[in-house]
Each structure stands twice: as structure tokens, then as C-alpha cells.
Amino acid sequence: MPQDNSPLTVIQMANAQLLPEVVKLLDEGHTVTLPLRGYSMRPFLENERDKALLKKTTTISMGDAVLAELSKGHYVLHRVVGIDGDAITLRGDGNLSNEYCHAGDVKATAIAFYRKGRSTPDSTSGRKWRVYSWLWTRLFPLRRYLLAFYRRIWLKFFKPI
Q1: Rounded CA Rg of the chain
Q2: DSSP 3-state assignment of 8?
Q3: Which residues contact 157 (CB under 8 A, 6 or more apart)?
Q4: pTM of the model
Q5: E strand intervals along the chain
Q6: Mean pLDDT lowest for which of 42-56, 77-91, 101-115, 130-144?
Q7: Angle at CA of residue 100, ends 26 and 56, nearest 5°
Q8: Residue ranges of the domains in the chain?
Q9: What is the rounded CA–CA span in Å between residue 84 and residue 100?
């Protein structure tokens, strides 16, 4: 098959414009790979470095990383830390505070992440992601200090790839 060596054009859009279109594709049964923007899922997912592979949500479980619309046009990709009937509590791995939505506001579940420029994804059902998730969620009381160390010291010596 011939290679297309034409230059790649990157177009950036506001999440409020892009994500409703992503949700439409998900509703049609497609999976979507979405470049990540923001720092709320640090230290393991980085702004403009990593990508999430999303699929339409069928069930919501504790620990899932989900795309949720918190208010009109305001979407977040955060971890589910609480479920009480229809009420869902979310928290980014790099955040110390919670955000809240309803089950109907959860638009997608991350089924894998492409990290550090790799071409093979880390599945959220794989051992690596499950161990990381289990450990990181249980470190919540210490997270403030771990995140401060990461931001103030680690990043000065080891820039994200």
C-alpha cells in the first residue's frame, strides 16, 4: 500500500464544540480516540501527550474513567469514586475535590489509554491499569502530598514525554 507523505494538519477546537460531536459518534456505536487536554488525571495521564479510547457507556462501575457532561458543554474525563442510585461522584486522579453528575450525564467509558506516545493501548481491564487504579484510589488521604511532590520536584527533573 502506498504511503501518504503529505503533512499532517492539526486542528484544535474548544471542548464545547468537539465533545458533542464525539458523543454523537459514540451514540452511533463508534469508538473514539480522544487526545487528552488538562491536568486533572495527573500523574499518569498528561495534557496533550496521552489519548483515551472511549466507547458508549453501558454500565457505570466504581473506578471507571468516564467522560461526563457536568453542565451544558462542560465535559470531564474523571474516575468514578461514588455511586448512589442515579447520583455519580467523580474525581480526577490529580484532583483533591469531587464533582457530581447523574448517570445520564455519563457519555462514555474509557476502555484504554495510549500513554507516552505509544501505539499500543493500556486497557482499563488489564492488570496494569487495575493495580494502578486500586493503589491510587486508596492513597487519597496522601494524594495531596504525592501530587505536590510530583508537580514541584518530579516535573522539574523529568519532563513528561
Answers
A1: 16
A2: coil
A3: none
A4: 0.83
A5: 32-35, 51-56, 65-71, 74-84, 87-91, 99-102, 106-114, 122-123
A6: 130-144
A7: 15
A8: 15-157
A9: 11
CA–CA separation, 42 vs 101, rounded Å? 21
Rounded to an integer, what distance in angstroms lies between the CA atom of residue 79 and that of residue 90? 5
- What does the chain come to in residues? 161
Query: Which cell goes with 112?
Result: 484504554
Q: Can you identify the CATH homologous superfamily of domain 15-157?
A: Umud Fragment, subunit A (2.10.109.10)
Whether the CB-CB separation of 93 and 40 falls below 8 Å is answered with yes
Sign of the CA dihedral with 53 first, then 59, 65, and 69 last: positive
pLDDT 10s digits, 34-58: 999 888 887 788 888 899 999 999 8
